[in-house]
Design goal:
Keywords: Molybdenum, Oxidoreductase. GO terms for molecular function: iron ion binding; oxidoreductase activity. This protein is α+β, with helices and mostly antiparallel strands and 735 residues long. It has three domains: 153 residues, Aldehyde Oxidoreductase, domain 4 (2-Layer Sandwich); 188 residues, Aldehyde Oxidoreductase, domain 3; 305 residues, Aldehyde Oxidoreductase, domain 4 (2-Layer Sandwich). 24% of the residues lie in helices and 24% in strands. The strands form six sheets. It has a seven-stranded mixed beta sheet, with helices on both faces. Strands 7, 8, 9, 14, 15 and 16 form a six-stranded mixed beta sheet that branches. The longest helix is centred in the C-terminal third of the chain and has 23 residues. It is globular, with a radius of gyration of 27 Å. The structure holds dioxothiomolybdenum(VI) ion.
Length: 735
């Protein structure tokens, strides 16, 4: 395997290449796009959470100014369901029958000349329901329970035998609430039909999935559909699935034979584009007096929608996190009358890690061992399920370097033993072993006659830096100055890319870009293979390198020529090459491909009189393999850490237990941290390139968030002696 030569730009903290577009307002997000003759849509949402629609009166809406059409289940055509995929399974097609399965379900779409006219008319649609009592509580005995729906439960060893020989067994129930993805950009779809061809701008993390889904749902060929998402406006997982409102916008455009734009309102974002479902988790851990983990049993229940396949295997993290011989993980879904959940910022991992890493701390305390020590002692040097060495794992370095930099040794073990004036001070930590996820990806690279390069793939950049790191990577592999390289994405007409999700894009895409660029150099060598005029005649790829756009022999740097010279002599405008990547196979590799690892260290302050909790310091030590851009990577970990603080202390989607209405569906009511809640966040990267891919990078999209909830909970325990097993951690739990 050819590995990446350390170039001039990879690793460096290059400013984002798309920053000028963003700060000048030139970057076009989905709702910046318009088509000539475009009209606007607004949704009608159900005002009951369960039951049937018994009648719809659209007469007032149809008669309202500017209205072109109102589509309901009474008038909608039959639509197919889109394809099922791991991250982006399509929910069932909208408006197909009279059933109401959750509050806010789209029961109609109104199309009018202006957005205001559409919204006004949507309010005039009268829907009559025969409401039934909704199922809203995961503990409701009437609710259907789905066992192990995706076959992801695990079991190794004998948990009961392990527990029996444990000196200490701790048990606890941990709960996490519903959280809602809240990207700043309101998710938008703009659709225009031209005959059977369709162009769609969409707030998606996965243009190919939107294209494939719309082709299946509307029974038109994929080749006629183009989905564009050059900028997304944030996503956090909300852009992985092809939501009903996307389908409805495309349907509306076909009905009125005009391009249609739909921008979700903020309240609609809470019911239309997924959320992190709540969980109830039972965890039981057995350990010896010396601190060896001998049994872990982790069971999770998450809520799911009535007619949906989204799945959160919250307990799964316990299967790979520690070198414990006896482990059982089991997950179930409970079907409720709630909006479809979806992946949200470290789906399943962040909930499961809260229970696991809190419980590990409980064990440490029970046997009187330092929380860092017990984690070091039980560090899994082999992949616990595959029994293979990890392709790379610098978790021990995360622990040790993180502890050193944080000053963990200053921690005195006794709860409540550290103070600063009236504040109780607590130190807490948590570990993260993020799962490996990679799926195939493709890219195409071209060098033009002027010596510039153009590289592209149908990926998305959800704000994390994909444009930038792929530009750097292509520049280094092609040996071209970074200012002469353009990397483009967000267009389903480009080569296939998987979603920007599951912390899986950067690794897959960087390997595809690397391969495409290497093949492109080979293309140049092929052209001059028999060219008597070329100093590169007969050279093989391994005989050459490229510096400043000039290919030259490694053993004789004076023998070479530039891309531009070579193209000109052969009368070519440009040369291109494709590259693809696939996940490495563990058996072939003889190693378990590793995801990212991390250790989180947190200092909190608690005012015992007022119950105030403040995060004072956070240090994240991250093993992300090769870091392609130190600046964007650091920003990504910082952003994830803010998300983790948010999950730990703020976010909770509140559903009215009687009606199923979401009671805090605005930015005013749905709490998130502000600057004053977020201290300076320290990040260190440890470890080195991962040998399982040519570029050596691992995805760090989600490892930044996971672990904060447990680390903060553990720090609260240290400060106050209270063990909080329910998120978010709020004042009332600390009084
Ligand atoms: Mo991420 S929640 O897989 O976009």
């Amino acid at each position: 395997m050819t590995t990446l030569e350390t170039g001039r730009t990879v690793g460096a903290g290059l400013d984002r290449v798309d920053a000028p577009l963003k700060v000048t307002g030139a970057a076009q997000y989905p709702n910046d796009f318009s088509f000539p003759g475009m009209v606007h849509a607004a949704l009608v949402g159900s005002t009951v959470a369960a039951g049937r629609i018994t009648g719809i009166d659209v007469s007032k809406a149809v008669a309202a100014p500017g209205v072109l059409d109102v589509v309901t289940h009474l008038t909608a055509p039959k639509l197919e369901r889109g394809p099922m995929t791991l991250l982006g399974a399509s929910p069932t097609a909208p408006l197909q029958d009279d059933r109401v399965l959750h509050y806010g379900q789209h029961v109609g779409i109104v199309i009018a000349e202006t957005p205001e006219q559409a919204r006004h008319a949507a309010r005039l649609v009268r829907v009559r329901y025969e409401a039934t009592e909704p199922l809203l509580d995961v503990a409701d005995p009437r609710a259907e329970i789905v066992e192990n729906p995706w076959g992801l439960d695990t079991e190794r060893g004998d948990v009961d035998a392990g527990s029996a020989r444990a000196d200490v067994v701790i048990e606890g129930t941990y709960t996490t609430p519903d959280n809602t993805n809240n990207p700043l950009g309101l998710m938008t779809t703009v659709a225009a039909w031209h005959g059977d061809a369709l162009t769609v701008h969409d707030s998606t993390q996965w243009p190919y999935n939107v294209r494939a889904s719309l082709a299946a749902i509307f029974k038109v060929p994929e080749s006629g559909i183009r989905v564009l998402a050059p900028f997304v406006g944030g996503a956090f997982g909300a852009g992985l699935r092809v939501w009903p409102h996307v389908v409805l916008t495309v349907l509306a455009a076909r009905q009125v034979r005009r391009p249609v734009k739909l921008v979700l309102t903020r309240p609609e974002m809470f019911t239309s584009v997924g959320h992190r479902p709540n969980s109830v988790q039972q965890i039981k851990i057995g350990a010896t007096r010396e601190g060896d983990l001998v049994a872990i049993e982790h069971q999770g229940i998450s809520s799911a929608a009535m007619d949906d396949e989204d799945y959160e295997p919250v307990s799964l993290c316990s299967s790979i996190s520690y070198a414990c011989p006896n482990v059982r993980t089991r997950d179930r879904l409970v079907r409720l009358n709630i909006p479809c959940p979806g992946s949200m910022r470290a789906p399943a991992e962040s909930q499961g890690n809260f229970a696991l890493e809190s419980a590990i701390d409980e064990v440490a305390e029970a046997i009187g061992m330092d929380p860092l020590e017990i984690r070091l002692r039980n560090c899994a040097d082999e992949h616990p399920l595959l029994g293979l060495p990890w392709s790379s794992k610098a978790l021990r370095e995360c622990y040790l370097q993180g502890a050193e930099r944080f000053g963990w040794s200053r921690r005195t073990p006794e709860p409540g033993s550290m103070r600063d004036g009236g504040w109780l001070v607590g130190y807490g930590m948590a570990s993260v072993s993020y799962p490996f996820y990679q799926v195939p990806c493709q890219a195409r690279a071209s060098v033009r006659h002027d010596g510039s390069a153009y590289v592209r793939s149908a990926a998305t950049d959800i704000g994390t830096g994909t444009y930038t790191v792929m530009t750097q990577l292509a520049a280094d592999v092609l040996g071209i100055d970074v200012t002469l390289v353009r990397f483009d994405l967000g267009d389903s007409d480009m080569p296939y890319a998987p979603p920007a999700g599951g912390s899986g894009l950067t690794r897959a895409l960087s390997e595809a870009v690397h391969t495409a660029c290497r093949r492109l150099i080979q293309e140049f060598l092929d052209i001059v293979h028999d060219d008597p005029a070329s100093p590169l005649r007969g050279a093989a790829l391994d005989d050459v390198t490229v510096t400043d756009g000039r290919i030259h022999r490694l053993d004789a740097p004076e023998r070479g020529e530039t891309y531009a010279e070579l193209l000109a002599r052969h009368g070519l405008e440009e040369l291109s090459a494709d590259g693809r990547s696939a996940p490495p196979a563990a058996e072939e590799l003889g190693m378990a491909p590793a995801g990212a690892f991390g250790a989180k260290f947190v200092e909190v302050r608690v005012d015992p009189g007022l119950g105030l909790l403040r995060v004072a310091r956070v240090l994240s030590a991250i093993d992300g393999g090769r870091i392609l851009n130190e600046k964007t990577a650091r920003s990504q970990i910082i952003g994830g850490t803010v998300g983790g603080i948010s999950q730990a202390m703020f976010e909770e989607t509140a559903t009215d237990p009687l009606t199923g209405r979401i009671a805090n569906a605005t930015f005013g009511d749905y709490l998130m941290p502000v600057n004053a809640d977020v201290p300076d966040l320290d990040v260190i990267f440890v470890g080195g390139p991962d040998p399982a891919t040519p570029t050596g990078t691992k995805g760090i999209g989600e490892v930044g968030l996971v672990g904060l909830a447990a680390a903060i909970g553990n720090a609260v325990r240290h400060a106050t002696g209270r063990r909080i097993r329910s998120l978010p951690i709020t004042i009332d739990q600390l009084l």
